[in-house]
């Protein structure tokens, strides 16, 4: 179960003043998926042939798994990455968190 710090980071990343780069977004996605393990990588569906975004996300997550990053380590790395992105892109705690995945 993710920690309160992880949950706070997951909310904070949606309140950045500027959108992170595609590489940063993929890194966030992969670490989030590994930290939450919902579903576990081994049981996750592979994206379809023409789902290029899904493939990029899947490969990013796969790389994290291949590196041997545990869910606990992924959580720590995610929190650290969000802190770095808050410095780089700015952070507005009064901003309504952006909806993700809609």
UniProtKB/TrEMBL annotation:
Keywords: Lipid-binding. GO terms for molecular function: fatty-acyl-CoA binding. It comes from the Eukaryota. Residues 1-91 form the ACB domain. GO terms for biological process: fatty acid metabolic process. Gene3D superfamilies: 1.20.80.10. PROSITE patterns: ACB_2 (PS51228). Belongs to the ACBP family. PANTHER family: ACYL-COA BINDING PROTEIN 1, ISOFORM A, ACYL-COA-BINDING PROTEIN, ACBP. This is ACB domain-containing protein.
């Amino acid at each position: 179960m993710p920690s309160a710090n992880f949950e706070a980071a997951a909310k904070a990343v949606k309140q950045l003043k500027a959108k992170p780069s595609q590489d940063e977004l993929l890194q966030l996605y992969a670490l989030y998926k590994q930290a939450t393990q919902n579903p576990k990588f081994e049981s996750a569906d592979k994206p379809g042939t023409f789902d290029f975004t899904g493939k990029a996300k899947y490969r990013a997550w796969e790389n994290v798994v291949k590196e041997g990053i545990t869910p606990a380590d992924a959580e720590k790395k995610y929190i650290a990455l969000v802190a770095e992105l808050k410095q780089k892109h700015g952070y507005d705690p009064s901003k309504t968190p952006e909806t993700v995945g809609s």
